[in-house]
Amino acid sequence: MTSSIWHPFTQHGLQEPVPLVTRAEGARLHTADGRAVIDAISSWWVTTHGHCHPRIMAAIAEQAGKLDQLIFAGWTHEPAEQVAEALRALMPPSLTRVFFSDSGSTSVEVALKMALGYWHWRAEDGKGARRHRIVVMDHSYHGDTIGAMSVGARGVFNRPYDPLLFDVGRIPFPAAGAEQATLDALEALCRLPDTAALIVEPLVLGSGGMLFYGAGTLKAMYEICARHGVLFIADEVMTAWGRTGTLTACEQAGVVPDILCLSKGLTGGAVPLAVTMASEAIFEAHYAADRARMFFHSSSYTANPIACAAAAANLAIWREEPVLERVSALAQKQAAWLDKLGRFCHFDNPRSLGTIAALDFKTSGETGYMSDLAPRLMAFFRERDVLLRPLGNTVYVMPPYCIGDDELAQVWDAIGEAVISF
Ligand SMILES: *Cc1c(COP(=O)(O)O)cnc(C)c1O
């Protein structure tokens, strides 16, 4: 099909095929040429319960008949109030404020601005130094806008924009056995008087290659930040909503962040929406009878009512249905498949956490993100009606929670075949 669309993360010069999808249901995507493809990566980590979930679709339809869009500066609406209230009930009580935006990247930009605003206004009040340094973990991903790229891994993804990216403090990824080096680096950076915040993906670095690290390390990182008054920003854009086995990944470490970024599964993956939740202290730093001190951030579609209605329906599903039981059943199946595959063929680093399972292909050639292994694997899986999108030589399965046993078997059979063939 000829099209003028410029697709994301797609090299059109390689004529990568772009299948046309006409509808979706549960864990399946139906294409124009009549195929039913299993969405084994939840359409890039967003779909939690399944595609076109009836409760979420009904909420969208109902809201669409009432109120489509509303300026959110100085105005409010029911769906947003419902979402804020539901989030307050589900998330740690110290996260008292809910700021809406529309993507994971934006929720990160908002978090960074809140953190710098906090230190700025405190300094204006004579309560200490102005702090501006953000500390980040190697191999992190926080989005593709300039600020989000600045706090993420540098490399081929952002080389042309490098002159615009701001400096950050970096700590190594806490690989198994090397955790102390991460903690030592964090301690050293937190001692600097101008360190404002740490931003981190809790327990799993997604785009960095599904790299896992332990809850104990996350907890230790949090404690170092707390001891030095450095703000702890949890980017749970991917890890929340059951992905790692719990509602949030932070709760596995007993960590309550100062700022929490949520998006992807916030609407069950149906429509774009994000929130940045903040502690009262961060809100309070911006609270004054002074217009210059308001939080200067907005996008046109902040808290769009239809998106909020989808999120409210998702949150009702979380309240009323045994979502974590489904997550835990899927988690067990994922671990079992990984184990079973490991008995028949060879690959590196089998790992699973919650609904995420990953393994690394052994290859003699180049394995980085730019090697042609991933696209070749992707094509191999597509021929078997399975949507997987490897990160370099890392193949991971992150399905919607409704995936059936037969569908999951089809995914893992395809991976088994690929391990033998590549
Ligand atoms: C996907 C992702 C983002 C960016 O979210 P978008 O909605 O794509 O902007 C940020 N942080 C993490 C951890 C993510 O996985």
From TrEMBL:
Transmembrane segments: none
EC assignment: 2.6.1.62
Site (Participates in the substrate recognition with KAPA and in a stacking interaction with the adenine ring of SAM): F9
Gene Ontology molecular function, alphabetical: adenosylmethionine-8-amino-7-oxononanoate transaminase activity
SUPFAM superfamilies: PLP-dependent transferases
Named cofactor requirement(s): pyridoxal 5'-phosphate
Top EC category: transferase
Top-level lineage group: Bacteria
Main location: cytoplasm
Binding site for substrate: W44, Y141, K264, S298, R389
Catalytic activity, reaction form: (8S)-8-amino-7-oxononanoate + S-adenosyl-L-methionine = S-adenosyl-4-methylsulfanyl-2-oxobutanoate + (7R,8S)-7,8-diammoniononanoate
Modification type N6-(pyridoxal phosphate)lysine: residues: K264
CDD domains the UniProt entry points to: OAT_like (cd00610)
Biological pathway: Cofactor biosynthesis; biotin biosynthesis; 7,8-diaminononanoate from 8-amino-7-oxononanoate (SAM route): step 1/1
Binding-site list for pyridoxal 5'-phosphate: G104, S105, D235, S299, S300
InterPro entries, per the entry: Aminotrans_3, BioA, PyrdxlP-dep_Trfase, PyrdxlP-dep_Trfase_major, PyrdxlP-dep_Trfase_small
Keyword tags: Aminotransferase, Biotin biosynthesis, Cytoplasm, Pyridoxal phosphate, S-adenosyl-L-methionine, Transferase
NCBIfam families reported for this sequence: bioA, PRK05964.1
PANTHER family with a match to the protein in the record: ADENOSYLMETHIONINE-8-AMINO-7-OXONONANOATE AMINOTRANSFERASE
Record's subunit section: Homodimer.
Protein name per UniProt: Adenosylmethionine-8-amino-7-oxononanoate aminotransferase
Lineage: Bacteria, Pseudomonadati, Pseudomonadota, Alphaproteobacteria, Sphingomonadales
Gene designation: bioA
